[in-house]
Amino acid sequence: MNQLHQCITKALCHCNIFQKMTSYPLKSVMKKHAALWLSLVAVSLFSQKKWTLEECVNYAIENNLQVVQQQFSKKTQEYNLQIAQRQHLPTVSGTISNSANFGQGRDVFGNTNRNDNFLNNASVGADILVYNNGRLRKSIRKTEYDVQASSFDLDQIRNDISLQIAQQYLSILLNREIEKISQSALQNADKLYQRARITTDVGTTPKTVLAEAEAALAREKQNVKTAQVNTNRSLFALSMLLQLPEYKNFDIENVPMSSMLDAPLYSAETVIDKAFENQPQIKAAESRIKSAEEQTAITKTSFWPTVSANAGISSSYFNSLVTNNVGKDINGNLIKESNFFKQYKDNFGQQLGLSANIPIFNKGITKLNVEQAKINEDIAKTTLLQQKQIVLQNVQKAQFDAESNYEIYLAAVESEKSSKLALDFAEKSYDAGRTTIYDLNVARNNFANAQGSAAQAKYNYLFSLKLLNFYAGIPLSL
């Protein structure tokens, strides 16, 4: 940040010198470079940010493309609901038509006359559904269930992404702990190498001791580099899961983990009932059952008549392009055409109507549609059973993994303690000259492996425990 501030300060000084050489106002230059400075600071702060698990989860469920796509699907269902609700409203439309005729025409008496004319018609009409055996109301209920199912699908995607992020987050912490173990082993190997070099130079130990110490040091350097690469690889994987535009400066917070973890809090039987109540995939399946039932009810309304009412107003204008006369009255006097507005007033009319569409025979298609709708109900009910079976198996697996990983974790901790004790004895024996450097390196390798196994067991158990608690309704956190 200090280097960034110095660079920006120098840039602003150069801008001030350039401003004195030109006619540009200093205030305008300062505004532009102030905006540049703020943007650079924002980028710098973003790159230096260390993400918590909660921040990663919140960012993903707001910006992940799967979530965004499902949000669009949910929005589409919400618009479908608005469309269904507005079907109760009348449909109003207006029409305006103009036509012109030209050429000779023959009347009923056989006389041929010129028949050029212009005709204008205008009308406004409204239609409204009066009765359809509750089809509109049932359509609204069906669409409401579709909206609910779409919302639960969105929650399910968020849950899946959250679990993936939690698993990857713990993987980073595990790799960092293994990296620390490797760094500690490297330091011990370096101390042993420095000691072996001194003792070999003074002739108290053979060169084979120095060669073994040097080989052990090279192995530990390789282990450290491998651990660092694994940490960076897991960071890269999490940044890709978050779909960040820049991954090189991405980092997470180091969360201190207790050396001893508690046993699982819940049993599978306790979690299953809560999971059946809270898991969105089950709620979505239940909503789709109700939607399928409403669709069956909608299909059955086709057996019933549909009654519609309509009303409208209209008027027209006629103009003979050949003569201004439209005919003669009873006295033989010519009748002249009225102007546009008078004809619209004289020809103004209203109409009301009521119509009924009564189904009589449609080849039995409605009955088949009802049977298909009932099959869709059965499919939806079977889907619910499948989802419950999946959740049941996931909970049971999480419980089994949590209990098994806890036992493995306890055994790994004991193995680490025993390996540390063996290493202490090996170091004392080596210092006393009773064991070789090979025996000491074996003890150190065993201790490093035991440390890595304990760390692996700890994070495996921690994830399975978080997963079990997640099914119990406890939010993800560290």
Sheet/helix structural class: alpha+beta
Beta percentage is 5-15%
Beta strands, count: 8
User: Do you know the CATH topology of the largest domain?
Assistant: Outer membrane efflux proteins (OEP)
Protein described:
- There is one protein chain.
- With 478 residues, this protein is an alpha+beta fold.
- It folds into three domains: 47 residues, no CATH class; 311 residues, Outer membrane efflux proteins (OEP); 96 residues, Outer membrane efflux proteins (OEP) (Single Sheet), CATH 2.20.200.
- It is 67% helix and 13% strand.
- The strands form three sheets. It has a four-stranded antiparallel beta sheet with strand order 1-4-5-8, with helices on one face.
- The chain is elongated and about 150 Å long.
- The N terminus is likely disordered.
Quick summary of this structure?
Helix content is 67%, strand content 13%. With 478 residues, the chain is α+β, with helices and mostly antiparallel strands. The strands form 3 sheets. A 4-stranded antiparallel beta sheet has the order 1-4-5-8, with helices on one face. A two-stranded antiparallel ribbon has the order 2-3.
Notable characteristics:
elongated, alpha+beta, 67% helix, 11 helices, 478 residues, 3 domains, disordered N terminus, 4-stranded antiparallel β-sheet, Outer membrane efflux proteins (OEP)
